[in-house]
Design brief:
Elements lengths: L1 H13 L3 H9 L2 H11 L2 H16 L9 H13 L11 E8 L4 E8 L1 H10 L3 E10 L5 E2 L6 E2 L9 E10 L4 E7 H11 L1 H6 L4 H5 L1 H17 L4 H9 L4 H12 L18 E3 L6 E4 L13
Antiparallel strand pairs: 1-2, 3-6, 4-5, 6-7, 8-9
Length: about 300
């Protein structure tokens, strides 16, 4: 018994932490080559790998996700040329709980700065802005035109809501305002983790103001703005449920290898030899010599 107990620390020492597993995966030769091909530059690939490791190492819940899936979601930020960092606020990967899968699924989400940058790249926006509204600043909202007057003087540092504003190069403009109560209700309704917990969790708890600004701007642009294909994909990314993400992952990876049936003999329920192309039944056979290559995924 004593000898077994003495061996336990040694066994535990051999176990790699999630961060070490991710580090090994990111620094693998095949993975590095794929980064270089995707990003087109060795230096960019190195910076991307470092940002993924930093994001992953600093989030205990994200470490419960499959490292490969985290990298796949992180690549969406890299392909959009958005820095992957919670502190910078352009984009991040967050863990989403799937009740059906009973597992955390990683998901790419753009921050409000990332949405602004993608909008600027379309060259269709003259002005684009979003921010917080303090108590005393809100004067009125036109129900008819949607125009927003937030030029009042702040009476305190209490945040009461969030605004977004866009003006296109053709002169069209639109603004939007959400109260803090409406934003909180939105997060509790559509964020599955917060809904399950009955309170704000994850990024919504840690970065509420940033997520709120991204949400009001995203909804304004999606409804009234002009979006490129990249921008449309980024804006709609966080609307997917964890179950949809998991199903998408399965669909894109399951049975992707071609299965060679050339050497297989197909047999029907009666033991007859069946031509797999025409369905013609040939002479009965005693046994089928089918090679088992595994499940194919």
């Amino acid at each position: 018994m004593t000898q077994q107990n003495m061996q336990q620390p040694g066994k535990q020492a051999l176990q790699k932490s999630p961060a070490n597993i991710m580090n090994s995966l990111l620094n693998g030769e095949a993975m590095q080559d794929s980064f270089i091909r995707a990003l087109g530059d060795k230096d960019k690939a190195g910076l991307f790998a470092a940002s993924v490791l930093e994001l992953y190492s600093g989030d205990d819940t994200l470490q419960k996700c499959e490292p490969g899936l985290v990298i796949k979601e992180a690549m969406k930020a890299a392909q959009l040329d958005l820095p992957l960092s919670k502190s910078l606020g352009f984009a991040w990967v967050v863990p989403r709980w799937s009740g059906k899968m009973q597992a955390f699924i990683p998901q790419f989400q753009p921050g409000w700065k990332g949405i602004v940058q993608l909008a600027q790249r379309t060259a269709m926006y003259r002005y684009i802005n979003c921010g917080v509204v303090y108590e005393g600043e809100l004067r009125k909202i036109s129900k008819l035109t949607g125009e927003l007057d937030i030029e009042g003087e702040a009476s305190s540092d209490k945040i009461i809501g969030y605004f977004a504003y866009i003006q296109l190069t053709n002169g069209f403009s639109k603004s939007s305002y959400w109260t803090k109560e409406r934003m909180t209700a939105h997060a509790l309704k559509y964020n599955q983790e917060s809904k399950k917990a009955g309170k704000l969790t994850g990024n919504w708890a840690e970065y509420f103001d940033e997520r709120a600004q991204a949400t009001v701007l995203k909804h304004l642009i999606a409804k009234f703005g002009i979006m490129s294909i990249q921008m449309r994909e980024a804006v709609s990314a966080e609307d997917q449920t964890p179950e949809e993400l998991a199903a998408q992952e399965i669909a894109s990876n399951a049975n992707t290898n071609n299965i060679d049936f050339a050497t297989a003999v197909v047999v029907d329920d009666d033991g007859a030899n069946v031509d797999k192309t025409t369905g013609e039944v040939k002479e009965p056979v005693q046994a089928a010599a089918v090679q088992d290559d595994g499940p194919g995924y």
